[in-house]
Amino acid sequence: MVSRVIPVEAFDLVIFGGTGDLARRKILPGLFRRFCAGQMPAESRIVGAARSQMDGAKYREFVAEAIAEFGGKVASDAEKLAAFLQQLDYVPIDARGVGGWEELADKVKGRKFVRAFYFSVAPGLFGDLAERLHHYGLSDKASRIVVEKPFGRDLATAQTLNASLAEHFNEDQIYRIDHYLGKETVQNLMAVRFGNMLFEPLWNSQYVDHIQITVAETVGVGTRGEYYDKSGAMRDMVQNHLMQLLCLIAMEPPAKFEPGAVRDEKLKVIRALDPVEPHHIVRGQYLSDDEDPSYREGVNDPRSKTESYVAMKVGISNWRWAGTPFYLRTGKKLAERASEITVVFKELNHSIFDDDEGGHRNVLSIRLQPNEGITLGVTIKEPGPGGMRLIDVPLDMSFAEALGDAGGDPPDAYERLIMDVIRGNQTLFMRGDEVEAAWEWTDPIINGWTERGDVPKSYESGSDGPGDAATMLARDGRSWRAIKT
Ligand code: BG6
Known about the structure:
Elements: E1 11-16, H1 21-36, E2 45-50, H2 56-70, H3 78-86, E3 88-92, H4 101-108, E4 114-119, H5 126-135, E5 143-147, H6 155-166, E6 174-176, H7 184-194, E7 208-216, H8 225-229, H9 232-250, H10 259-271, E8 281-286, H11 295-298, E9 309-314, E10 326-331, E11 338-345, E12 363-369, E13 373-381, E14 390-398, H12 399-403, H13 413-423, H14 432-452, E15 457-459, H15 467-475
Parallel strand pairs: 1-2, 1-4, 2-3, 4-5, 5-6, 7-10, 8-15
Antiparallel strand pairs: 7-11, 8-9, 9-10, 11-12, 12-13, 13-14
Bound molecules: 6-O-phosphono-beta-D-glucopyranose (BG6).
6-O-phosphono-beta-D-glucopyranose is lined by residues 217, 236.
């Protein structure tokens, strides 16, 4: 079995912030990999646009270096790289002024291809870019814009951002990226749920005891301290990535796998979320270890009250989920890099086996990264004579093993999402109302911390987070899954 590459139309892609970190690490190497996979027709063009004064030749050198560093296996194919670079150009641009705009307009106007503008810049510039694209005649129906998170820092700022984009672009031209939606295994959540008969009939509060969503990282804030200390885990991870995972695991089956239907169902989940009680949240900050300074040292504020870890119990008030808690947690400097969604089913209501002590549950774990795969815990008889003693064993399916070569190296989230922009498929992008609804739920939680002067608990680097998170589940008679790959 060989994985299929679906052709895309020729396109012009302008990357604002074309010399920035995201462009260097993800966007440009990702585009090169798509080029190698045959998904960049010869007429297509990529135009970097940024403040730096350089010409096309210098930009191509910059891109070649980025690909050498971050391109992966294909980076060594000199012939392909030379051909790819031929399709690249650069325009120095002043996002808030007039410099460069005529030149950019000349380069892309009048070409009959899909036209996308990637705003890989600070959100403070989104409105200026949208306004200038309009002024220079580049906001017509052929144009799409791609915007990155953070999409606002609360409901009010998200509304302002949405309004500034909506002045010049229709919702169907706006692609808000949450890179978690581009991850292969995150999409697999939908395949597992809606492509199998097995799970969906049990996917409700009658059969599911609780669900855990864990996104654990081993890295600290690194060089991003200034940004991160103004955000914290709640804004940086929960409002977007974990919220999207929660939506995909909890939503009703959409009538079709198409943008409107999927996004409508996700929105309904967010709108059904209960407010979170303060005693259902634990926040933490990591301490130093041999490799890294503590969180507070890292962000250069000995009194910082921003969380690098958050765990919470969330309820969904709808027919399907009322009574089933969702436990969410994410943090930096934890024991392992491991992201997993675990569906813990209820215990049997009656056991026919006298010898058995009970307590068995089916547990479905969907490992998002690394070692993507699914494990289903089932109960069987312990081998050997002497009665019916039951044990729980895992039915383990690693996607890499099951798919062999056909699994290949799945495209990076950004590659997939950029190709979806070119195809005009918004299914894996966040709609404006979804983002606003997520902030509407998040805001009171964050405001509560500020009003109460809440200080996060310290936790050891390399641990599972603050002990209070375990206590929170123990109060419910439950425990977190171990953080392991
Ligand atoms: C980003 C956050 O959106 O996601 C980072 O800003 C975080 O703080 C990253 O490290 C995690 O992404 P991934 O793909 O490595 O799980």
